[in-house]
Amino acid sequence: MGRDYRPIRTTMKIHEYQAKEIFAKYGVPIPSGRVAHDAAEVRKIAEEIGKPVVVKAQVHAGGRGKAGGIKVAKTPDEAEAAANAILGMDIKGLTVEQVLVEEAIDIQEEYYIGITTDRAARRNIVMVSKEGGIEIEEVAAATPEKIARLHLDPALGLLDFQIRQLAYEAGLPKAATKGIGPFLKALYNVYSDYDCSLAEINPLVLTGEGKLIAADAKINIDDNALFRHPDLAQYQEAQEDDEIEAEAHRRGLTYVRLDGDIGIIGNGAGLVMTTLDVVQREGGQPANFLDIGGGAKAEVVRQAIDTVLLDPNVKGIFFNIFGGITRVDEVAKGIVAALEEVKTDVPMVARLVGTNEEEGRKILSESALIPAATLAEAAEKAVAAARGR
Ligand code: GDP
Ligand code: MN
């Protein structure tokens, strides 16, 4: 199994144009341009720029290029046509409502630079690659040797000799090696100043003139640190909510959608976080974080199951309930009631311990639920059940 440097935690994503605004404040060269919401505005911006432009979908998803969400336009007419094609487009389940219109870059080479948290190493890690323009996960999977990596000491930050070392190891040409320092420093400063879990410029473009420019920018911010960044509130408001998250919040549930296929329901944030970790350790990928809280009644449990199943990726559900204030038999009743109503064949594994656990287990013994005695056993069974589908 490859190492995954992307942490699972709640992150706030911002759009490319917003990330570029931040990078620009740190002195990073970016193409000139602005965001637009309709084709007429796109045409106007293209006319103002007076050169070929690139029209780029602004959605919280990578791989927009591949999905047809990025088009180069030589004339304002073409820009308008590109906007008509891209606006309203669906990219990975997200509707494009705005586009960034920028002066097109004369691309000679595309590189990757990024910083993220390597939880296993308990360090931030900088990555530089000559293979930019495609998603770094693809490079990491196919040709990991083409990514130069370096763990950072939090007390020292990113030092000049480390920058030279990274550029050398990545095999960058002379022009890029000379110019990359300020980009990596800005990347590091943005990453630390904004409490990012990821900061990435991909591609960092070497132009025909031999200059470096950030053609794309991505920043994910740790939600827990948002109170320290009031300037980001404007971005958060503009953020499109995941539909399932929005529905969960209307139902009063503490739910965060993740990328995997194993639905997680537990009581208490710490317990749910631990459950995510244990599922990952067993080789599974959690589909969500859902904390039903203390003292959850049967109805809340029913709502929780229903919400988790709104995600079509879910292939298995893992209940991890510790009965303290929450009574295990209440939760069990909720599960049984939910299964009568929801009618799903998604396998469910339950680890229920604590107050009234005997009673709870008895209630569940008549259901289709797969019981598990320990956390590890439950995780193993949940991963196996999801794989079996
Ligand atoms: P992503 O696919 O969502 O990561 O979007 P990017 O902004 O990284 O763009 C994807 C690809 O589109 C880049 O790797 C480039 O090959 C291409 N692209 C982006 N901007 C320009 C541009 O200004 N000019 C040209 N010729 N290609 C561009
Ligand atoms: Mn990109």
How do the strands and helices of this protein lay out in sequence?
Layout: E1 11-13, H1 16-25, E2 33-36, H2 39-49, E3 53-57, E4 70-73, H3 76-86, E5 90-91, E6 94-95, E7 99-103, E8 107-118, E9 123-129, H4 136-142, E10 147-152, H5 160-170, H6 174-193, E11 196-207, E12 212-214, E13 218-222, H7 233-238, H8 243-250, E14 254-257, E15 262-266, H9 269-281, E16 288-291, H10 298-308, E17 316-323, H11 328-342, E18 348-354, H12 357-365, E19 370-371, H13 375-387
Parallel strand pairs: 15-17, 17-18, 18-19
Antiparallel strand pairs: 1-13, 2-7, 3-4, 3-7, 5-6, 8-9, 8-11, 9-10, 11-12, 11-13, 14-16
Bound molecules: guanosine-5'-diphosphate (GDP) and manganese (II) ion.
Describe the protein's architecture and organization.
With 389 residues, the protein is an alpha+beta fold. The chain folds into 3 domains: 11-16 and 106-235, D-amino Acid Aminotransferase, Chain A, domain 1 (2-Layer Sandwich); 32-103, 2-Layer Sandwich (Dna Ligase, domain 1); 243-388, Rossmann fold, CATH 3.40.50. It is built from 13 helices and 19 strands. The chain has helices at residues 16-25, 39-49, 76-86, 136-142, 160-170, 174-193, 233-238, 243-250, 269-281, 298-308, 328-342, 357-365, 375-387; strands at residues 11-13, 33-36, 53-57, 70-73, 90-91, 94-95, 99-103, 107-118, 123-129, 147-152, 196-207, 212-214, 218-222, 254-257, 262-266, 288-291, 316-323, 348-354, 370-371. The strands form 5 sheets. Strands 1, 8, 9, 10, 11, 12 and 13 form a 7-stranded antiparallel sheet that branches. Strands 2-7-3-4 form a 4-stranded antiparallel sheet, covered by helices on one side. Strand 18 (348-354), helix 12 (357-365) and strand 19 (370-371) form a beta-alpha-beta unit. Bound molecules: guanosine-5'-diphosphate and manganese (II) ion. Manganese (II) ion (MN) is lined by residues 202, 216. The site of guanosine-5'-diphosphate has 17 residues, from strand 3, strand 4, strand 8 and strand 11.
